[in-house]
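Hi team,

As requested, here is the filled-out complex form for the pyridoxine-5'-phosphate run. I kept the field names the same as last time so the parser does not choke. Let me know if anything looks off before we queue the next batch.

— J.
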Amino acid sequence: MKTKLSVNINKIATLRNSRGGNVPDLMRVASDVQRFGGEGITIHPRPDERHIRYQDAYDLKPVVTTEYNIEGNPIPKFVDLVMDIKPTQVTLVPDAEDAITSNAGWDTIKHKAFLQKVISDFKKEGIRTSIFVDPDIKMIEGAKDTGTDRIELYTEDFAKLYGSGNHKQAIKPYADCAILANKLGLGVNAGHDLSLDNIKFFKENIPGLLEVSIGHALICESIYLGLDNVINMYLNKLK
Ligand code: PXP
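And here is what came back:
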């Protein structure tokens, strides 16, 4: 089964914002990512707009001709934005306003009622839903009760352990959770700290992996190898 590559372009917006102008041009990068073979564009607008701005989310709508995935904490401002844009998928992430990057998945048991409500509102608008979760069996069971279409496995721990050479230990909780999610009828996405080094092993060991969203490593690797090359290297590893 093929796994789709969705490219997170937040880092491009961070680079642009650092000088105040329009270099690099986020729209051009989004369009080139897709021309080079990227199968989706992911953005994660945060309330302080320090990388992706809310206006970027609107401007990208006609540019994204593949799958458009918008991630974020479903505060009212974010919910309104997503409802307005109607992307292919919304990925709900419980990140604090000042978090440097997402650093935990949902407690799907504690926040069940809240998630059920936002998920059903998005689904009514025809937007596919995914929720960011740690690789914890209880959180996957809880995810099923929220009504979400998919889960996104938070892969930071995998990447860390894999990097230190503990490949089997790194993958085990993720494989167990993916098997359960498949059984429960939940689609499986994954993201965070995935890279050219670890993606092939992850893909080969996670049954039914539908999509990965990758930003930081992919953009860093592109500095040396070029965006076109890097996207195609990922596509080869995700075959
Ligand atoms: N998934 C979620 C929910 C994220 O917040 C991020 C980072 O914005 C990613 C995936 C991508 O992580 P990375 O930039 O490490 O590839």
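Two things worth flagging: The mean pLDDT is 96. DSSP finds eleven helices and eight strands in the chain.

Thanks,
J.
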